[in-house]
Amino acid sequence: MDVEKVERKEVEVDDDGRVRTGTVWTATTHAITAVIGSGVLALPWSVAQMGWVLGPIALIGCAYITYYTAVLLSDCYRTPDPVHGKRNYTYMDVVRSCLGPREVIVCGLAQYAILWGAMVGYTITTTTSIMAVVRTNCHHYRGHDSACVSSGTMYMVLFGLVEVVLSQLPSLDKITLISVVAAVMSCTYSFVGLFLSAAKLAANHEAHGTLLGVQIGAAAGVSASTKTWHSLQALGNIAFAYTYSMLLVEIQDTVKSPPSENVTMKRASLYGIGVTTIFYVSLGCIGYAAFGNGAPGNILTGFDEPFWLIDVANVAVVIHLVGAYQLYAQPIFACYEKWLGSRWPASAFFHREYRLPLGGGRAARFTMCKLVVRTAFVAATTVVSLVLPFFNAVLGLLGAIAFWPLTVYFPVTMYIAQAKVAPGSRKWVALQALNVGALVVSLLAAVGSVSDMVQRLGHVPIFQTQL
What we know:
The chain is mainly α. It has 15 helices and 4 strands. Helices cover 70% and strands 3% of the residues. The strands form 2 sheets. A two-stranded antiparallel sheet has the order 1-2. Strands 3-4 form a two-stranded antiparallel ribbon.
């Protein structure tokens, strides 16, 4: 019996000495968790900017591109052979193996830009959710006609202070509980948003909206330029909602074989993105049908009753993003602290560790670099969020930054190098056409988001966040 157990354990150990137990179902669960996030809240508004024709097409088209490039990326987990080659444990490892160190720098810049941008977006989203809770309770207790207007500046500063404290905790990104809580919370507010939208649509007894979305004209209060910028921004919002490629390699690294990891991951991506797409199309379209062209930028801010359920959803957003903020911040902290420590190896500011007793034999350990620089970094992120408190515009810009380089360019380019696709062949031309098309979409979405920010800055008081 003991011999059998030893043999079983030896079989479970992979070629790199690690034990992996992931299956297509665990990978599918991870994929759904990775995709569904705060970006889902902007989908009804995004559909409203493009209407019943282009809105669903954009949702389904973005999903297909995400799935197709995920299939290409799955074949690059092992190099140079997708079945028997050397494992790559992270997205940047794949880039390094397939394209070389120069491309790793570009990839790193794109990834860290997305991480920091997400921190800004999460700060804004958390603030709007807290403000929505305050307004909903005000309307419930004082009446729906009451002027329940509040500024979110104080809430944004308080959120920044909470993140300053959490940023001092060690290896927060390694705590599995945070990922579990994030998954539960994201599902909670997503399904509440869908339920409330469906209930409102049923109460209306008819579907609202138009074929081309928000209409131009004095009656609608929308100029041609605003319509254009918002439509392009909506593309970025949808692209941000489907952000997945950055985490695919890490998910694939949890999968056991046989069958080979790329086969399992392709199935998991199909199931995960398929389920997510059904949910996204449902929420985007039902939310648009319920509100029409007046769909709010954050779907949860469009409801007042039942106030307790709306509060539950918004509190779930806050809980999710408090932890998610640190999951995105910790890799940035680790990167610059490692670089600074190697640059000044003899400096006590970077290397001397201080110990703060907490009682019970426990103690908090920190360096002055960790205390000062992390605090300054979170403070700077909060200030940027205060200056640019535009939920949809920030999400649109994040989607534009992430979509082309991380979702399309690197997977396509790495697959071409890995599979040795001949230049000039039909497949090579098709892949490059996808590459160029995605670049154009990303540039347009970025222009639309930045233009909307500039336009809003001329009318919104600085350091004043409003719903």
